[in-house]
């Protein structure tokens, strides 16, 4: 039987790359949701998918969508991803992410109970590590969220687990670590840095404004990330949770050095107090052994990813 794939948030950053991957592999019956017709990624692969403009917090609309599509696979990527701004948008982030999770899960329970479902969480759920013995982070690491976005993702994660337990839905949970690439908004650090570098090249600003550069993060190219999603959709065990990350930590200062080296003009750094978070997690690095056991490994070098991000902003 050919798969019927539904990707919520399918015109967003990771969603658009997932669409490209599936289309390249010959998957023909793909449906994506978008919140509105504005501000969404536009890639040639979308010509081969069916788009649905829907508010996933709307119970009636979401039920009608899932009943009509009857998906056999659901990649649930849709969420408000305001990490750095999540304190000032706390109510919006919490209400939206929790409500849409309940609505989507209820619709699947009613209209596609046998579908395989991939629920996308976040490494932000793990929050603070107490000492070096907790790094790299395994899936049983305690959840110690330090911002409202992380709280919303934990709630989404636990709701997914509860629907697996209570209704025996085929739900696999994923906690992706930082992923980067084309079409990521400048709400995220690497994309924001690259956008500024291009502005400096164009004479539109004089300094690269940054926040805390001492943090260590685990970066994976978005094309590797969505490939992991597909592998987990095919091979993941329902009820389980899987980290997806490179397993390699890199200091944010090193990211700035690489990006600056890609600039066509000298780059001067300026600390911007508005970019500092109330609490910044010192180290987030994935233990990826569970997903690696299913046959996944990252393949794209960090420098290649950063080159593509800068090239993307030069085209904007």
Description:
The structure is a single chain. The protein is α/β, with parallel strands linked by helices. Helix content is 38%, strand content 16%. The strands form four sheets. It has a seven-stranded parallel β-sheet, sandwiched between helices. It has a two-stranded parallel sheet with strand order 7-10. Strands 8-13 form a two-stranded parallel sheet. Helix 4 links the parallel strand 5 and strand 6. The radius of gyration is 19 Å and the shape is globular. It starts with a strand and ends with a helix.
Q: What order do the helices and strands come in, and which of them pair?
A:
Layout (H helix, E strand, L loop, with lengths): L3 E5 L4 H12 L4 E6 L15 E4 L5 H11 L3 E4 L13 H22 L4 E5 L27 H20 L2 E7 L2 E2 L8 H13 L6 E3 L5 E2 L2 E2 H14 L5 E4 L5 E2 H10 L7 E3 L17 H4 L9 H14 L1
Parallel strand pairs: 1-2, 1-4, 2-3, 4-5, 5-6, 6-11, 7-10, 8-13
Antiparallel strand pairs: 9-12
| Helical coverage, percent range | 25-40%
Low-confidence segments, given as residue ranges, are: none
Strand adjacency order, main sheet:
3-2-1-4-5-6-11
Oligomer: single chain
Short description:
By secondary structure, this protein is α/β, with parallel strands linked by helices. It has helices spanning 13-24, 59-69, 90-111, 148-167, 189-201, 222-235, 252-261, 289-292, 302-315, and strands at residues 4-8, 29-34, 50-53, 73-76, 116-120, 170-176, 179-180, 208-210, 216-217, 220-221, 241-244, 250-251, 269-271.
């Amino acid at each position: 039987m050919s798969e019927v794939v539904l990707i919520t948030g399918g015109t967003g950053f990771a969603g658009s790359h997932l669409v490209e991957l599936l289309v390249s592999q010959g998957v023909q019956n793909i449906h994506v949701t978008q919140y509105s017709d504005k501000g969404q990624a536009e890639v040639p692969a979308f010509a081969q998918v069916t788009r649905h403009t829907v508010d996933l917090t709307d119970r009636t609309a979401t039920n009608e969508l899932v009943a009509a599509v009857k998906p056999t696979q659901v990649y649930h990527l849709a969420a408000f991803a305001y990490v750095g701004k999540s304190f000032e948008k706390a109510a919006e982030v919490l209400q939206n992410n929790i409500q849409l999770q309940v609505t989507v899960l209820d619709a699947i329970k009613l209209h596609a109970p046998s579908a395989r479902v991939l629920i996308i969480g976040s490494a932000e759920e793990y929050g603070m590590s107490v000492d070096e013995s907790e790094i790299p982070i395994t899936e049983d690491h305690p959840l110690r969220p330090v911002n409202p976005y992380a709280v919303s993702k934990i709630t989404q994660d636990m709701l997914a687990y509860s629907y697996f337990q209570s209704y025996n839905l085929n739900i696999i949970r994923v906690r992706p670590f930082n992923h980067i690439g084309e079409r990521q908004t400048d709400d995220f650090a690497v994309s924001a840095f690259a956008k500024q570098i291009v502005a400096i090249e164009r004479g539109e600003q004089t300094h690269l404004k940054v926040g805390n550069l001492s943090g260590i993060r685990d970066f994976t190219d978005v094309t590797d990330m969505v490939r992991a999603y597909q592998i987990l959709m095919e091979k993941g065990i329902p009820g389980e949770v899987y980290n997806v990350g490179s397993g390699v930590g890199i200091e944010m200062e090193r990211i700035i050095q690489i990006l600056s080296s890609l600039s066509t003009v000298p780059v001067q750094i300026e600390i911007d107090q508005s970019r500092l978070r109330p609490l910044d997690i010192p180290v987030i690095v994935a233990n990826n052994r569970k997903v690696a056991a299913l046959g996944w490994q990252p393949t794209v070098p960090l420098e290649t990813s950063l080159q593509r991000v800068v090239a993307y902003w030069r085209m904007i």
